[in-house]
Design a protein that fits this description.
11 helices; binds 3,4-dihydroxybenzoic acid; nine-stranded mixed beta sheet; six-stranded mixed beta sheet; 15 strands; single chain; alpha/beta; globular
Length: 390
């Protein structure tokens, strides 16, 4: 009886081996960790839609391997992100860690990427220092210094002399504030006050009152994706839209996901950013249309591009290694890769593993009854200045 069982087992195993010669090696798993619930769920929704759209458009077989996506919700809580990343590495044996909707979530995971020697693709979090935490981190979104520097230069060139900065009080906000102060001062401007608003449950009212009292030429704002609507509502309630104080910012504040619901208060707001859904290229028109079809009419925002291009980078790396999931080989394949994104031409800087991309100056305008960030100037191939500024 025992012998029969043994033979039955041996035959079955052999059959399995013959049917799948390389066993689990034939599947490459990508662990995508995103805030799908909580106050930053819009970031998760945008990135998940874009990642799935990329896979739908490009297929799920790369270099002879089956690509499998595992999506996990961290609710925007760093301890959860870290625990999920550990489980994905140890239990699911993922070849890539990806996602990371906020800076603290990326920082919590970087040591795991180093230990496991697994590429970590940061699709949203945008504090400059993140890529310095591990040689296995690369980024397909942007950094705050990268998009803030052109804003400070534009403001100085356009007659703005006195500015108050108003940022969310954590990594990317501090990066934006520091960069704006430095670049604006070097161009002859003056930052008269720097205000910082809490990340959780922000109330802008007392800070906007301060801006009103200081009466600068402009207020420069950074808030993370999704928070722009609350900011704009309080900006109007305080009467700042009629105060003559110009509103400037990085494009996070006029996030395409929520811009259309902000109303006319957003008209004329000038921002600098790496992506607008109104970017007038054929590749972007096709992207916006496909994204809308895949999501019940949602407009893609900048975070979606971090997801879409993150997948382009992963697919390229797997092709280059001929399907090998050796972490160092994959990282080497990513360094220096150049491709055409719906946002414009992009590349991975081989020395910093940061994305190099155009930054556009844009103004909110009404086109066919809808609000859009209309690009009117391009600063080509901007690197992250956060690395050299220190
Ligand atoms: C970060 C998050 C955002 O939604 C954003 O627009 C910019 C930066 C961050 O946490 O790094």
């Amino acid at each position: 009886m025992k012998i029969v069982r043994f033979f039955a087992f041996a035959t079955a195993s052999l059959a399995a081996l013959l049917a799948f010669p390389a066993g689990a090696q034939d599947t490459v798993k990508i662990g995508l960790i995103l805030p799908m619930t909580g106050p930053f769920a819009s970031t998760g929704r945008q990135i998940e839609t874009a990642v799935k759209l990329y896979m739908q458009q490009h297929g799920t077989t790369v270099a002879g391997k089956k690509v499998e996506l595992i999506v996990k919700d961290d609710g925007g809580v760093a301890d959860t992100t870290r625990r999920i990343a550990q489980e994905l590495v140890l239990n699911d044996k993922v070849a890539f860690l990806a996602g990371f909707g906020l800076t603290p979530l990326a920082l919590a995971t970087a040591p795991i990427a180093t230990q496991a020697k697994i590429p970590m693709i940061v699709m949203a979090a945008a504090t400059s220092a993140i890529t310095e935490q591990s040689p296995f981190v690369t980024r397909t979104g942007f950094t705050l210094p990268q998009v803030t520097q052109p804003m400070a230069e534009w403001a100085a060139k356009n007659g703005i002399k006195k500015v108050v900065t108003l940022v969310t009080d954590y990594g990317p906000g501090i990066d934006a504030e520091t960069t704006f102060r430095k670049v604006f001062a070097a161009a002859g401007g003056e930052v008269v006050e720097s205000l910082r608003v809490p990340l959780r449950n922000p109330d802008f009212a007392p800070f906007l009152q301060k801006v009103h009292d200081l009466a600068p030429n402009a207020v420069f704002v950074f808030v993370p994706a999704g928070v722009g609507s609350i900011f704009m509502k309080q900006f109007t309630e305080r009467g700042l839209d009629k105060s003559g104080i110009k509103l400037l910012g990085t494009g996070d504040v006029t996030d395409d996901d929520i811009l259309n619901d902000m109303g006319d208060v957003a008209l004329g707001v000038v921002t600098t950013f790496h992506y607008s859904a109104a970017h007038p290229s054929p590749a972007n028109k096709a992207y916006v249309e496909a994204f809308g079809k895949a999501s019940n009419g949602m407009r893609p925002n900048f975070h979606s591009l971090g997801g879409y291009d993150g997948m382009a980078l992963i697919y390229h790396a797997l092709e280059a290694t001929k399907g090998s999931t050796d972490g160092e080989a994959l990282m080497n394949a990513m360094k220096g890769y150049t491709w055409e994104s719906p946002r414009g031409p992009v590349a991975i800087d081989p020395s910093t593993r940061e994305i190099v991309q155009n930054v556009y100056v844009r103004k909110v305008e009404k086109v066919n009854g809808q609000l859009w960030n209309v690009e009117f100037q391009t600063i080509p191939a901007v690197k992250d200045p956060g690395k050299t500024a220190k």
